[in-house]
Write a structure and sequence with these properties.
It contains 3 helices and 10 strands. It is α+β, with helices and mostly antiparallel strands.
Amino acid sequence: MKTDIITKNISDRKKSEHLKRYAMKKMPKLKRYIDPERKPSEAKIILFAEKLRNNAEMTISSGSLKASASVETNEMHSAIDKLFDTIIKQLRRRTDKQVTLRRRNVSKIPYAVRTQRSEMKNNLRVDHQYLNSKPMSVMEALLQLDASEENFVAFKNRETLEMNVVYKKADSKKVGLLTP
């Protein structure tokens, strides 16, 4: 993550460097919400003093995730602490929102087929179906087989936690169960 820290109106150079180091110590807290390897990200922190007020401002951008905050206090260390608390609260809210939206979209897809993909291999069409691996009993799998138009249902057995297949036999109205 590219981080720029700018200090303004802070007369003592040692104090300015100390505040920059203090702000850099707080930066690892943000890595939980921002993945710098996957998305290019940058943070800009501005620390400045005006008369008796100490201000801290921060803007973060990482892909589609953006956040900014400004804090004003009497002491610069507490301004930096409050600034990071505010930014973390914003980032947590935005990332939680993205996660819940993804979960909602996944749950709207029918149970049996999550995604389908077709590809051609050696002049043969291969259809891939990714199934939900929710554990269920054999009776639930039989009900799922009756409800669907498919000839089989693959499922994770609740009792053994192994993958099983319930299928309709072609020659009769009987049903078969495959276990590993």
